[in-house]
Amino acid sequence: MSDLDRRLCLDATNVLTSKEHSKKNFLFLAPVDTTHFPAYHDIVKRPMDLGTLRANLEAGRYGTRGEFFDDASLCFENAVKFNNGVADRQWIVKLSKSMMKILGRERSKADKIAAGGR
Fold it and tell me: Are 75 and 99 in contact (CB under 8 A)?
């Protein structure tokens, strides 16, 4: 991953984990506590959260900006997959979809900057 891509990914991570979005991102900052949701790994085969995403980025585990954004999407896709159809957890689906929109804006911004635009 180029230095520019690493910076763009870090910028996106900072936005996703920012206090500005704390009413939406709080569920996604750390791994799901499977003591409360024991069936989680039966449904979600590749867990991801924003803390792990940041750690992977800092450890150089992403070869491309696309790989990073794919994992970032997984944070929210997993939440929808696990909680969709469960009446008392639709608020989680709503938060997930809201975070997906923020992620989409960050990905578009990163793509534009990487292409030479501002």
Answer: yes
Give burial (CB, 10 Å; 0-12/13-18/19+) of 85.
exposed
Residues 104, 70, 24, 117, CA torsion sign: negative
pLDDT one digit per residue (tens) for the chain, 118 residues: 999 999 999 999 999 999 999 999 999 999 999 999 999 999 999 999 999 999 999 999 999 999 999 999 999 999 999 999 999 999 999 999 999 999 999 999 999 999 996 6
In the DSSP assignment, the letter for residue 29 is S
Reference 94, options 114, 109, 79; nearest CA is: 79
